[in-house]
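subagent[fold] <- orchestrator: predict structure for attached chain, return tokens only, no commentary.
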Amino acid sequence: MVNFLSFKNEIYIILMAMLPVIELRGAIPMGRAIGFSSEKSLILSLMGNLLIIPILFKILVPIMNIFEETRLFKKTIGWIKEKTLAKTKSKIKKYSILGLFLLVAVPLPTTGAWAASIAASILKLDYKKSILAISMGVIAAGLVVYLLVKNII
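subagent[fold] -> orchestrator:
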């Protein structure tokens, strides 16, 4: 029987990479900070960030639409949608699927898989092409952060 508590730190990094804003941009340095190699931090962070993409793409906007109907969350959800589209719409409109890749590949705050998944869902972009573009962007961003952590760039 596998003792999952022995993988506590690995699970922590995977879950951290699934979180909005933090994603792998924060999970890779955190993995290094708790003693993992740069390579292990990269792999765990990629696992977490890639695992969440299809889930986000399918359920995030429908859930946001439900919450947007409530008085409590209406303004917050509207603000999230507005800010996401303001940051992403011109790039995605101009470059289409390549725009999704570019949005995610540049490892800046609020430009990760979460923002791209929300934007692609709202803009009703092709599911398979969007998942591929976002996934490739995550891998590219992961490699950039990895290279930064290794002091290569």
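orchestrator: received. Logging for downstream: The chain has a mean pLDDT of 90. Residues 38-68 form the longest helix (31 residues).
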